[in-house]
Amino acid sequence: MTQWDRLRQLPPVYIQQLHELYDRDGLPMDVRHYLSAWIEKQEWQRAARDHDFAVVLFQVLLENLDIQHSRFVQEESFLLQHNIRRYKQNFQRYLDEPCSLATAILWFLEKEKEILASADLAEQVQLLRVDQEAMETNSQQDLERKMAGLRNEVQCMEHTMVCLEEQQDEFDFKFQTHKLEGKQIKKALKKEQVKVLQFLANRLNDCRKSILSDINKVLDWTDDLINLLVKKELVEWQRRQQKACIGAPDNVCLDQLEKWFTSVAECLFQVRGFLSKLEELSGKVSYENDPVKARRPALQKRADTLLKELLKSAFVVETQPSMPQGKGPLVLRTNVQFSVKTRLLVKFPELNHSMKVDVSMDREPPQIKGYRRFNVMGTTTKNLNMAESQNGGMVADFRHLTLKEQKSGGGSKGVSDISLSVTEELHLIYFNTVFELKGLAVGMQACSLPVVIISNSSQQQSAWASVLWFNMLSQDPKDVVFFASSPAAPWPQFGEMLSWQFLSATKLGLNPDQLEMIAHRLFGKQPNYDTYKVAWSKFSKENLPETFWVWFDGILFMVKTYLVDLWKEGLIMGFVSKGKEKSLLKKKKRGTFLLRFSESVIGGITFSWVETAITGEPDVKTVQPFTKEDLSQIPFHEIIRNFQLLEADNVPENPLLYLYPDTPKDRAFGKYYTEKTGGKSTQLVVMTVCHWSCRNTLEAKSPMSSDMAQGEGLEPMNGLCGEAAGESWLSLLSNPAKNLINQIALPPSKRSSTISLLALW
């Protein structure tokens, strides 16, 4: 099944994400649909780098569009004919820059994979839930009971109001009849009528008092529910959204909150209707000490206050600001489009398309010297509507906004001496609207989480670090001066955040052993890390090029781009120290190897294996780390598959036999191997580089000093045995092979041996 077919079978919420993805310019959904199989078979990553290859793919793409056009002509599909012709004309703009088209298509395919990953993760989480209702928290169950009680009470009041109106009509009719008859009736009968009227008046008075008491009780009930919704459930959702923005697999669906908010709002509007009806009835029939005139104004004020409080909290940012090709949400770049979606949790269909939402920036910016100011450009006004939401919610989806820095008056005269870097500077985006219904008008404002605004793509890594740190630690979502005195992160919270990064990128987080290695790197060997904290300056600082985050993010990028399948299968141990690696392998049989990330090369991965030395002792050997430059040329599983050493008798041997702890190499990696098919396949050739007798001449220091320290790794080959030896065959090797020369290292033993390099012939 193609990736596109899988996407089309996803639940509606993910189909909506797919529609939002293809609302952008770059790759029309029609083209993606009709050419899906061809698109997914092409090497777009190579085309993004190789201009000649990109030209070939570009021409084939146009030919495929012509074929589709001819097909639609035969089928007499007039509209599709027109669309395909227009798409082909639009693609002509890439005639001189086919690599840009390849990059765009590659980006769309990666975003599709992210949608699939999200759906798979949600499915896995759902499978872990035996029964969602059984897993609801006690507070939610209590809230549901109270909500049902409120609805039942309001329904009873509706019946009571009907009874009150009937009683008043009866009293009014008999009273008016009594007045008309006047002196025409006998005194005894008149006295009896007065007695009946008094009974009816007392009953009417009691009924009014009862309804007013019931309304007060309903308002007490509503007050309690609003406290639960606004101060607990909504706050918890906002915290979950913060965590979800940085990779946590938290549920941020608003459907349940919308149901609760709408239910309470409907009840309050009904109460307001009851109070209006009481005012109307009291205007028709009133008397001394009428409880309606005495108590209704206070109840009206209280009902309006509660309703306004609920409505003001019901306007939220459902999807935080994000750029199409950003590192994550909440990092925006000037003059680059971003999208954001607001939602009204009180859903009244009669308000569809009637509430206008306006966007603005930094209503009250902090008085910090150098704090920048920005204007929001693009379509900054939209109406809340139910058409842009897959589940029919009231949303305003802004998809074409940009930020432009103000040229003057940009905060240069701040009263504070606080100094923040560009990526520590936080900004808020505000959304304003007015709710008007049944005589009630309420101004409403929603606010995004703080965004980091950059002007250059090189600042993305540092900006994303700021987003991670803020949303991991801040309890105040509007604290734009958070980095003026940023708190340290407790290790349990910090480790969880790191695991989220791998979970969101690869669907597999970090296990306790991997987290322990990272803690060891940060704090040294400790019996327990729970009380330790990581300072912001140690995690990421713009003026420090080699912070923890730069190292960690380099690994994350490498895994996500080149090693995601191996990582998800659990084939990469990854975060393991050299010492731990050595102790693990020495206990295993010859040929056992493991894969770990480099501790000193940014975005590097290496493998180590155990051999038996002449003395009979286990000897652990390591190659110099491979980086993205190497992995972009040769897949890592192919390097592992074909890595060989040549012994003295020139018999090639792959020392990698068992993936730790004891899985045969081909069983672990076999399904990823590239099959050879005829002359067009890549052929791996064993090249003899040098005999061990040249070792002293060729020895060179490795840039990976910590990886190679204390005999734990192999020494890299940076040259050959004399110039002639190099000239004899080095010129025959392709660039990937030359790169690999610097990756393979000689064993430290002094026995006569040679090492072979796997080169692309």
TrEMBL record:
Coiled-coil intervals, chain numbering: 140-167
InterPro entries per the UniProt record, alphabetical: p53-like_TF_DNA-bd_sf, SH2, SH2_dom_sf, STAT, STAT_linker, STAT_N_sf, STAT_TF_alpha, STAT_TF_CC
Domain called SH2: residue spans: 567-673
Gene3D superfamilies, alphabetized: EF-hand, SH2 domain, STAT transcription factor, all-alpha domain, STAT transcription factor, DNA-binding domain, STAT transcription factor, N-terminal domain
UniProt keyword Phosphoprotein, yes or no: yes
Pfam families to which the protein is assigned, alphabetical: SH2 (PF00017), STAT_alpha (PF01017), STAT_bind (PF02864), STAT_int (PF02865), STAT_linker (PF21354)
One cellular component term from this protein's GO annotations in UniProt: cytoplasm
Primary localisation category: cytoplasm
Subcellular location field: Cytoplasm; Nucleus
Gene Ontology molecular-function annotations: DNA binding; DNA-binding transcription factor activity
SMART domains xrefs: STAT_int
Superkingdom field: Eukaryota
PANTHER family recorded: SIGNAL TRANSDUCER AND ACTIVATOR OF TRANSCRIPTION
Protein name per Swiss-Prot or TrEMBL: Signal transducer and activator of transcription
Encoding gene per record: STAT2
